[in-house]
Amino acid sequence: MKKFGLLISLLAVFAVLLLITPGRTYALGLEAAAGFWNQAPSGDLQYSGALGEGTKLNLEEDLNYASKARPYLRVKADLPLFLPNIYFMATPMKYEGSGSKDVSFKFGDKEFNAGASFNSVLKADHYDIAVYYSLPFLNTATAGSLNVELGLNLRIIDFEASISQGALSESANYTLPIPMIYAGVQLKPVDLFSIEAEFRGITYGSNSYYDLIARMKVKPVGPVFIAGGYRYEKIKIDHNDVKASMEFKGPFIEAGVSF
C-alpha cells in the first residue's frame, strides 16, 4: 500500500500541474478517477524449486481466497494531435488465506506437511502507463459521439507469493514489466452519458495476459462524473519457476472529474 500511496501522490501532483500551468495550450483534456473493484479470484498457482515441480494450488479450494474490494486510481491526459496521449492506472491486488491439504505438497524448495493448516499471501499489484492516439477523423465524422483510441501499454507487476506453516516458509517475488496493446472506445450519444470499453493484452509463447474493462458513465453536474462497470483479467505466465493460470473479475464503481 505504500507504493500505491506514493503513486497516488505523484499522479495527483501531475494532474494539478496540468490544470494550473500558465499558458496550458498543450493539454486539451484531463480525466482523473478513483474507485473500488471487487476482485474475485480463480485459477491455480505453482512454484517449482530444487525439489522438482511444485504442486499446483487452487486459489479458491486450496488457498481459500475470496473476493476482495480494492481501491484503484486512473488518470488520462489528452494532448495535441502531434503528441501521444497518456493514460496512468494503478491497481492494487492482494489476497491472504488459511488452508490445509490432505496430502503433503511442494512450494518452491520446501515441502509442506499434510493435514496441518498453512497461511498464504498472493500479491499482484500492477501499474499501467499507456501512450495512445485517438482516430480524429472518426470523432469528427460522428460529431464527437464516437471515439476510438489505439496505442501501447506497459504494465509493471509487483508479484509476491508466499506460504508459511509453523517455522516453515517459502516465497517467490519479482517485478515483471509486460508490454501490451491498448485499445479504447467511448460512445457518447448525449453529453451527460457515455458507454466505454478498454482492452489491454498480449500473447507471447505460452504466456498471455488480457485485461478488459466495460464502463457506463454519468455526468450529473459540471465536470464531475460517476461510473460503474465490470473488469475481467486473465493471466497465464511461466516466469522464474512460477506457473500461474489465474482470473480476476468483478464489478467496480468510481467517481472522478473530466475537463
Explain what you see.
This protein has 259 residues and is mainly β. It contains 2 helices and 14 strands; from the N terminus they run αββββββββαββββββ. The strands form 2 sheets. A 10-stranded antiparallel β-barrel has the order 1-3-4-8-9-10-11-12-13-14. A two-stranded antiparallel ribbon has the order 6-7. The radius of gyration is 21 Å and the shape is elongated. The two termini are 29 Å apart. The model is unreliable at 10-26 (pLDDT under 50).
In short:
This protein has 259 residues and is mainly β.
Q: What is this structure's SSE topology?
A:
Blueprint: H1 2-20, E1 29-47, E2 57-58, E3 68-78, E4 85-91, E5 94-99, E6 105-107, E7 110-112, E8 118-134, H2 136-141, E9 146-165, E10 168-190, E11 193-204, E12 207-221, E13 224-239, E14 242-258
Antiparallel strand pairs: 1-2, 1-3, 1-14, 3-4, 4-8, 5-8, 6-7, 8-9, 9-10, 10-11, 11-12, 12-13, 13-14
Strand content: over 45%
**Major sheet characteristics:** 10 strands, antiparallel, barrel
Q: Which whole number gives the mean pLDDT? A: 90
Termini gap: 29 Å
Apparent shape: elongated
- N-to-C SSE string, H for helix and E for strand: HEEEEEEEEHEEEEEE
Helical residue percent band = under 10%
Compute the number of helices: 2
Task: Work out the number of β strands.
Answer: 14
